[in-house]
Amino acid sequence: MKCVICKQDKTYQGTATITLERAATTLVFKQVPALVCETCGEEYVGEDVTRMLLVHAEEAIKAGVEVDVRYYRAA
């Protein structure tokens, strides 16, 4: 995959930490599977993983969570 930031073609399968904020809710997801650029460190999360994170975020918002740190677990 070509990095949109540095334009290099070197990415590897790694993990990322993703922070999502909406209104009074802040969620941090750790160890999220991602492609990581070897050159600049930019992280790319796939559509399925993103969809899953957003579902968990909506659930947390509805439950009234203000701040939470979670570890990614595949469904």
What's the topology here?
Layout: E1 11-22, E2 25-37, E3 43-44, H1 47-62, E4 67-71
Parallel strand pairs: 2-4
Antiparallel strand pairs: 1-2, 2-3
Overview of this protein structure:
Helices cover 21% and strands 43% of the residues. The protein has 75 residues and is an alpha+beta fold. The model has no long low-confidence stretch (mean pLDDT 94). The longest helix has 16 residues, at 47-62.
Mean pLDDT equals 94
Number of strands: 4
Q: What does the overall shape look like?
A: elongated
What summary fits the major beta sheet?
4 strands, mixed
Low-confidence stretches: none
How much helix is in the residues? 10-25%
Number of helical segments? 1
Radius of gyration: 14 Å
How far the N terminus sits from the C terminus, by CA atoms, comes to: 25 Å
Outline of the structure:
Helices cover 21% and strands 43% of the residues. The chain has one helix spanning 47-62, and strands spanning 11-22, 25-37, 43-44, 67-71. Strands 1, 2, 3 and 4 form a four-stranded mixed β-sheet that branches.
